[in-house]
Design brief:
It is a single chain. By secondary structure, the protein is mostly helical. It has one domain. It has four helices and two strands, in the order ααββαα. Strands 1-2 form a two-stranded antiparallel sheet. The chain is elongated, with a radius of gyration of 34 Å.
């Protein structure tokens, strides 16, 4: 009976040690998963959002801060999708999801009846046009109207 009791106590201590080891491994694995998720989110979601902010706005950080108040970006069915802060997809006036594209996002943010519409209108670059009006340059050379080189200097 004593040997059975001793064997059982030894098995109990071995199992407790194994449980402690497995719990420590689980904590390490959870930390690795959290790090991997963070890196994934940074590369797949935050990177494109920052690039979009730089291409859309004259003040990218202000745009990102204001965007984060009402919207977020997430992967839905393998595609980057603009969502409201509550997780519902952002729908345009036509009732379709607003794609994460420059023109569609600019149109949505500047035309939406929202308290931050004025801010978006102020910081978004709506058109990439330079503002210059191009006019074809016509080079007309008329050899008869050119004066000889020395004619205007009083030489005869």
């Amino acid at each position: 009976m004593r040997t059975t009791n001793t064997d059982l106590l030894k098995t109990k201590h071995d199992l407790k040690a194994r449980i402690a080891t497995l719990e420590a491994d689980a904590v390490k694995m959870q930390a690795k998963v959290t790090t991997a998720e963070s890196n994934f989110h940074e590369v797949v979601i935050n990177g494109p959002l920052r690039e979009m902010a730089q291409s859309l706005s004259s003040a990218p950080q202000v745009f990102l801060d204001e965007f984060a108040k009402s919207y977020r970006l997430d992967l839905v069915e393998g595609a980057l999708t603009v969502l409201h802060a509550d997780g519902k997809p952002v729908l345009g006036k036509d009732g379709k999801r607003v794609p994460f594209e420059r023109e569609a996002l600019t149109k949505f943010l500047t035309e939406t009846e929202d308290k931050s519409q004025g801010l978006y209108k102020a910081i978004l670059v709506v058109s990439r046009a330079s503002g210059g009006v191009g006019r074809p340059v016509r080079s007309v050379s008329n050899p008869d109207s050119q004066k000889p080189v020395g004619a205007g200097f009083g030489l005869r």
